[in-house]
Specification:
By secondary structure, the chain is an alpha/beta fold. The longest helix is centred in the first third of the chain and has 17 residues.
Length: about 400
């Protein structure tokens, strides 16, 4: 049986650069940063006081206040991004077979804000004061669950938890549902809202975060000599995947085709990647094999590029091993330089950026890359976007636990 083709027909995101897709893309191309001083809680006792915080989010734009109070912030982000993606896709949900439409949304941490709030209540006021909505709000599958309920989706419905690779794994797994004829449409991606007191304190304790508090917009600087860690951010990135003929018959806009998916494990360390990048390299190789293309055909790679010392060198090594003689002439960038690190949502947002890069023939820049690290000596598109015709592009996501995922898209 011929493999069913999977295309991307809808894009939706919620980030520190807003929800409007065109404004978001214009900001990325213009080199804007969404990193700022954290305002949602007092950071005076924290060594890090900056993040990719979303300040203008109002769930009452799509839910009533009673419903919104029963859903954690991370799942609200997922729902908003899904609504944006479905709207962008032009799908009329009343006209599709809901039994053939499913949802897979990943998250690295889930409802951390709810966990913090109810744990504080437990300690201060006792067990009888803990909310009955605590578990339904904090569970990671609340994102996909609430999206499927909102649209009454009856197809495959699950979630993925693989740290910073969660969204990429969710999207890859969702594509398999369509390829295997288990669904015609999948709403998929990732969401995260770990920019809380406990989330920030935990990553501070790991010494993983940038401490450039006096210059937030310049704090996230992947592949730069002066990088000092990643910037913790929040948000969601969701795409609508659709079987090609299903999309074509309804006259849908097709942003790109999802042609390849590869995943591996490092099998080495819970937080540190393999220094030689072999795990990441193998995930990329498997994605290219799945796409039936050669690495020389890649016109753009959206790197995981966190801005940590170990990750950026590892990924550079992996890309050199993958690309071989083409390593120095392949356009690469890390858009975490604009947004910070959205953890389990990053792969969804970055696939959206990769799709827009392919569609608009523009390579987005790595901002703040002023002094390239000598060990990170590839073409990371410093400071300014550049025009480039792109036929195939790749998006990488690598997570704590040694989880590696790569997605390859192509023009239709």
């Amino acid at each position: 049986m011929a493999r069913r083709r999977v295309v991307i027909t809808g894009l939706g995101q919620v980030t520190a650069l807003g929800q409007d897709l065109s404004v978001f893309w214009e900001g990325i191309c213009a080199g804007k940063s969404g990193v700022k001083k954290i305002e949602r809680f007092d950071t005076s006792a924290f060594s890090v006081k900056i993040g990719g915080e979303i300040c203008d989010f109002d769930p009452m734009e799509f839910l009533d206040s009673r419903e919104a109070r029963r859903i954690d912030r991370f799942a609200l982000f997922a729902l908003a991004a899904s609504i944006n993606a479905v709207k962008d896709s032009g799908l009329e949900m009343d006209k599709i077979d809901r039994g053939r439409c499913g949802c897979i949304i990943g998250s690295g941490i889930g409802g951390l804000e709810e966990l913090e709030k109810e744990h504080t209540k437990l300690l201060q006021r006792g067990p009888d004061r803990v909310s009955p909505f605590c578990v339904p709000k904090l569970m990671v599958n609340a994102a996909s669950g609430n999206v499927s309920i909102f649209y009454n989706l009856r197809g495959p419905n699950t979630s993925v938890v693989t740290a910073c690779a969660s969204a990429a794994h969710a999207i890859g797994d969702a594509s398999h549902q369509i390829q295997l004829n288990l669904a015609d449409v999948m709403v998929t991606g990732g969401s995260e809202a770990a920019l809380t007191r406990l989330g920030l304190a935990s990553f501070c304790a790991l010494k993983a975060l940038s401490r450039q508090n006096d210059n937030p917009a310049a704090a996230s600087r992947p592949f730069d000599r002066d990088r000092d860690g990643f910037v913790l951010s929040e948000g969601a990135g969701v795409v609508v995947l659709e079987e090609y003929e299903h999309a074509r018959k309804r006259g849908a806009q097709i942003h790109a085709e999802l042609v390849g998916y590869g995943m591996t494990g490092d099998g080495s360390h819970i937080t540190q990647p393999l220094p030689d990048g072999s795990g990441a390299r193998d995930a990329m190789m498997l994605a290219l094999k799945d796409a039936a293309i050669d690495s020389s055909q890649l016109g753009y790679i959206n790197a995981h590029g966190t801005g940590t010392q170990l990750n950026d060198i590892m990924e550079t090594n992996a890309l050199k091993a993958l690309l071989g003689p083409d390593a120095q002439k392949t356009a690469i960038s890390s858009t975490k330089s604009h947004l910070g690190h959205l953890l389990g949502a990053s792969g969804g947002v970055e696939l959206i950026i990769t799709t827009l890069a392919l569609k608009n023939s523009i390579v987005p820049p790595t901002i703040n890359l002023e002094n390239p690290d000598k060990q990170c000596d590839l073409d990371y598109t410093p400071l300014e976007a550049r025009p480039k015709k792109i036929k195939y592009a790749m998006s990488n996501s690598f997570g704590f636990g040694g989880h590696n995922a790569s997605l390859v898209i192509g023009k239709v």
